[in-house]
Every structure is written in C-alpha cells, then in structure tokens.
Amino acid sequence: MCSIEGKGKGKMRGIRMGATKGGGGGGGERVEKLKSSRTKLWMIRATTSVLLWTCIVQLTALGDTWGPHLLKGWPSCFSHQDSSVSVVEDKVPSVPARVLPPKRVYKNNGYLMVSCNGGLNQMRAAICDMVTIARYLNVTLIVPELDKTSFWSDPSEFQDIFDVDHFIMSLRDEVRILKELPPRLKRRVEIGMVYSMPPISWSDISYYHNQILPLIKKYKVVHLNKTDTRLANNGQPLEIQKLRCRVNFSALRFTSQIEELGKRVVKLLRQNGPFIVLHLRYEMDMLAFSGCTQGCNSEEVEELTRMRYAYPWWKEKIINSDLKRKDGFCPLTPEETALILRALDIDNSYQIYIAAGEIYGGQRRMATLAAAYPKLVSR
Questions:
Q1: Does residue 246 fall inside a structural domain?
Q2: Integer Cα distance of 280 and 376 in angstroms
Q3: Alpha-carbon distance 114 to 142, whole Å?
Q4: Interval 186-198: pLDDT, tens
Q5: Domain total of the chain
Q6: In terms of domains, do 184 and 262 share one?
Q7: Molecular function terms in GO for this entry (predicted)?
Q8: Which of these, 304, 300, 311, lies nearest to 288 by C-alpha position?
Q9: Residue 379 and residue 357: Cα distance in Å, rounded?
Q10: Residue-wise pLDDT tens digits, 233-270
Q11: Does residue 134 share a domain with residue 250?
C-alpha cells in the first residue's frame, strides 16, 4: 500500500508542477480530464449502490412470499428443532377474540332498582324477570341487590356469586345496566328520597307499561323491593320469553371460583361411577313457608308454625297441610323420593347426591332413602 500511495503522490505532484511550470493549456486539459473521470466514477458507484439495494429489497419481498413454497423440499435448510416447533405451533388452537354485542341506543326513561328475595333459585328467576322488564320499559337497570334477610342470612353481594362484568357486557345490546346509580341520584336514595314498592305478583308486561313506567318517569328512580314471581310465566310475547332464557342461561354466569368448585365436585362424583343429583326441597324454611308437615311429629309441626308467624312478609299463616298436599303444592318427602327412584328403576349402586340444605328431621327422615340407596352423599 505504501509503494502505491508513494507513486500516486509523485504522479499528482508531477501534474501540479507541470501545470505550474508550463502555464499552457495542455496541463489544464489534463486536470479537467481527471476531474471528469472522477465524477463519472462517483456516478457509477452511486448508481450501482442504488441498484443493489433495490434488488435486495425485491428479493426479500419475494422470499417472504415464495420462500416457504420453494423450500418445502429442502429439509436441510431447517433444523429438526425448528420443524418440531412449527408442528407444535400448528396444533395450538387459535383463541377467537371476544366480540361484544353492539350497545343498544335508546331514550332512557329512568332507573330501576330491585331487591331480590328468597333463595338463590328464586333470586335468579327474579333477575331474569327484572332484566326483561327493564328492557321493555326502556330504563336503566342497577345491578340487583340480593336477599340478606332470608332464612340463611347470606351476606353475599351480586358480584360474590355472579360474574358482574359479564352480566353487564353480555346484555349491552338489550338493556343498559350500571353497578350503581349516578352520583346525584345516589345521594337522593341514600337520604331516603326514593319511591319503593312491591309489584303485583304474576303480572304481565302490560302492567309494568301502564303502572310502573309512569312512576319511573315521575320519580326518575323506582325501587322494587319484592321480585319473586312478579312476571307471569305464561301468555307473554315470545320475545320476552327468549330474553328471560338468555339471561338465565347466558348472562348469569357464576364467578370463576364457584365454577371451579363445581367442576371439582363433579369430578369427585364421577370417580365413583354414575350419580344422580337431587334437590329435595325439604329444608325447614321451605316446609314452614308452604305449611306442608307430612311425616312430621307434633313438636316439629309447632316449630314450623312458629317460624311461619315469625316472618311478617309470609302472608299465609293458617295452612291446612292435607289440602295443600291434595292441590299439589307440597314437596315430595324423602320417603316418597325413595319410592319414585325405585319406580324409575334407578340402580341402587348409583350415588345419590343431595344438593340441598339440611333436611328437616335429619337422619330419621332420610333413613328410608339411605336404606334404598346406600351410596347417599350430601354436602
């Protein structure tokens, strides 16, 4: 490199000297030619660089499109590990993105607050009714309040049992649901400025249009403090029945903790073969409310009667148990349940899981069923 640089320097020095000494046009022409050749060389290099980069970009794009197809028969281009990873990735199912229903836009006529009463089944049915009523009155529903004064004294809130966010979002195309009232209206309710009433039982939707909607428009907020059996089951428009079913089977989803517990229980039951789940509806509060005392001794009948009088909102006090039974308003006794299962030819090797509260009368009333089906389990 040194010898070349030396020659180059000498040559350049000679050119400069010649130009100076001669002072003629010959030296100037040589300088101009040298400059022109350098300019051409720079242009060639620049043009070549642009063409090379253009080719690289085009080849990269073509490689992304055609590379996988052209290289299918070239296993040597991929390691064994790479191919196995691609196979695993192909087997992973794609999780579809959650698609929210479109929000329903309507003129809001006011706000509906509801306090459910009864057991979980009664409250669940009531929530289905109240969502439907709110939808067809074009009002905003506040997340229902659950019963805390019942026989069980359960302090659970709605969000403790049900997935409240799923409840709100899954019904957004039908009705607007809020977790609480707007601040201004909430303050009015806190100081007692709210219209509260129990609707008439087994009413059709026209009752709510004609009687409840004018109250909501007048007071802005109406609180329905009793919700069990407040909307008739039969004779309603098909759209109302469909919405009730949608709320019950889709919108009211248990929390993940409760669902996980349920799966564990089912898994444990399946480990021991076939099983049947029974809800006997033979708890103390059920018998006291209905006045059905078949199979109870005199002390138990007195205890159930005292309980019935202890709850002022249970309107029916004097009850003829035999007449109730003949009219079909009494639950099957544990003894009768054993007869029904035998009549249905249910194998006595099946597990019978009692999904209910404490059976009134305890082991004495469950003895017949336990003898007929030895694999009897409860909570």
A1: yes
A2: 13
A3: 7
A4: 999 999 999 999 9
A5: 2
A6: no
A7: glycosyltransferase activity
A8: 304
A9: 8
A10: 999 999 999 999 999 999 999 999 999 999 998 999 89
A11: yes
HEC profile of 55-90: HHHHHHHHHHHHHHHHCCCCHHHCCHHHHHHHHHHH
| Residue 326 belongs to some domain of the structure | yes
- Cβ distance 162 to 189 under 8 Å? no
261 and 231 assigned to the same domain: no
Return the residue matching tokens 């007071």. 219
Provide the pLDDT for residue 7: 42
Q: Is residue 150 part of a domain?
A: yes
Helix axes 25-70, 2-22, angle to 10 degrees: 140
- What's the pLDDT band for 2 if we cut at 50, 70, 90? very low
Q: Which domain holds residue 182?
A: 111-254
**Chain position carrying tokens 């063409």:** 51
What digits encode the pLDDT tens for the residues 120-147?
989 999 999 999 999 999 999 999 999 9
Taking a C-beta distance cutoff of 8 angstroms, is the pair 184, 221 a contact?
no
Token digits of residue 210: 């004609």
One domain for residues 249 and 125: yes
Give the three-state DSSP class for 329.
Answer: coil
Looking up tokens 């030819």, which residue turns up? 345
Does residue 99 form part of some domain? no
Same domain (yes/no): 168, 261: no
298 and 236 co-located in one domain? no
Q: Looking at 230, 254, 278, which one is the last position of a domain?
A: 254
Instruction: Identify which has the larger pLDDT, 232 or 28.
Output: 232
Closest CA to 164 of 198, 215, 112, 127: 127
Domain boundary among 235, 254, 273: 254
In this structure, what token pair is assigned to residue 375? 């694999």
Q: What is the mean pLDDT of residues 270-298?
A: 93
Return d(Cα 311, Cα 363) in angstroms, integer: 27
Amino acid, res. 276: I
List Cβ<8 Å contacts ≥24 apart for 260-263.
none
Placement of tokens 């970009």 in the chain: 57
Contact between residue 333 and residue 361 where contact means Cβ atoms under 8 Å apart: no
Q: Is residue 246 domain-shared with residue 156, that is, in the same domain?
A: yes
Could you give phi then psi for residue 98, rounded to 5 degrees?
-70, 125
Whose CA is closest to 376, among 330, 344, 332, 337?
A: 337
Sign of the torsion angle spanned by Cα atoms 62, 68, 69, 72: positive
Q: What does pTM read for this prediction?
A: 0.69
